[in-house]
Amino acid sequence: xxxxxxxxxxxxxxxxxxxxxxxxxxxxxxxxxxxxxxxxxxxxxxxxxxxxxxxxxxxxxxxxxxxxxxxxxxxxxxxxxxxxxxxxxxxxxxxxxxxxxxxxxxxxxxxxxxxxxxxxxxxxxxxxxxxxxxxxxxxxxxxxxxxxxxxxxxxxxxxxxxxxxxxxxxxxxxxxxxxxxxxxxxxxxxxxxxxxxxxxxxxxxxxxxxxxxxxxxxxxxxxxxxxxxxxxxxxxxxxxxxxxxxxxxxxxxxxxxxxxxxxxxxxxxxxxxxxxxxxxxxxxxxxxxxxxxxxxxxxxxxxxxxxxxxxxxxxxxxxxxxxxxxxxxxxxxxxxxxxxxxxxxxxxxxxxxxxxxxxxxxxxxxxxxxxxxxxxxxxxxxxxxxxxxxxxxxxxxxxxxxxxxxxxxxxxxxxxxxxxxxxxxxxxxxxxxxxxxxxxxxxxxxxxxxxxxxxxxxxxxxxxxxxxxxxxxxxxxx
Length: 478
What we know:
Layout: E1 2-9, E2 12-19, H1 21-36, H2 51-72, H3 74-81, E3 90-93, H4 97-104, E4 110-117, E5 131-136, H5 141-152, E6 158-160, E7 170-179, E8 182-195, E9 217-223, E10 237-250, H6 257-262, H7 268-302, H8 309-330, H9 341-368, H10 375-386, H11 391-403, H12 405-425, E11 429-434, H13 437-441, H14 466-476
Parallel strand pairs: 5-11
Antiparallel strand pairs: 1-2, 2-4, 3-4, 6-10, 7-8, 7-10, 9-10
Protein name: Trigger factor
EC number: 5.2.1.8
GO molecular function, one term: protein folding chaperone
């Protein structure tokens, strides 16, 4: 096999590979010899088929197998050159049928070209120069009690009362929503239960229930938020025809063992323990993400090199497709995000380049540190991913992952990355700083994630703008 480099520009490489006809013939002869004692041809005893007859019957198909075998083993060419391709090399060979026929007949050399980009060599620097401040927040007893009350509120009982509804009361009602006098999809319900003050509905809806009593009928006027998830309702003024069926007042909520048992726990202390753990985990995730962000920013400053263009293009397409899908789902445009498509493309191109470059750096760090993702970790992550799908699809999705190496690589990547971050946290200078909740959550668009989730019935929470959402991924999901 003769390998000639025909292009070496930056990270781009192109090779011309020639396998002489005599070498192709030697491989074919070996295959024919191996098959001689195995094939069954009419009129010949096993192992007695003449070589020339065997060649006439199987020669071209065996030679095609030789060609495929050579093409499948191009990695050995790169290994011999000491190169790591960024993606699978592109293979080009003759499309002329006559030339291809000569190769299969053993009358011509087999020639093809390989074009690819190499992963640039990365010389790791000392991590001792990286210094970060890790913000740490200690969950207070008051927060635990507040959250315990929210959790326990699902076990609260209500007692029907006479008279007008007040803040905290539960109102059972029928409602019909209209815009410009026309009912809209999803705007009607019967026997809906609303606890005034829980902010389950559009802003202004619950407040107008105060003062109503059983049997009352009225009309409530509200406005959907400008960034409401359903584009056809966003920013629209609506009227809800209301019929109150029942008003109930809340009974006193006591946090005791009996309340905990209604929630499936053995005691109030166990309830508080679980709630504290959940809060510490939620705030701990914010702490980790902010620390990780500082590490990635430091690495971004420390390692400046050309990233393989094909990887950047692929990453950009992933980001861009997500951004445009989010915009379409929200019924918004780039102008609504105070930018233009051209400016957005430039921004996300830079983001893609950064993510690819940092991905290569983290990969190199992990390889040098011998970071491993175990089979059990992969299995747990795979199961967690599959659980996001409907039960009837889970087996099919499981088989897809098991048979698709690239899909499994996508499962492994975030696990590997977090392990590399763990490794770096042990190598760099980390100073812990006790901060308040507000300081920890400052400038964090996911602050709502650290708060107790509220059930949304009529008004989903406002989504982060696509531009901000993608920027967030830059910090938390390189």
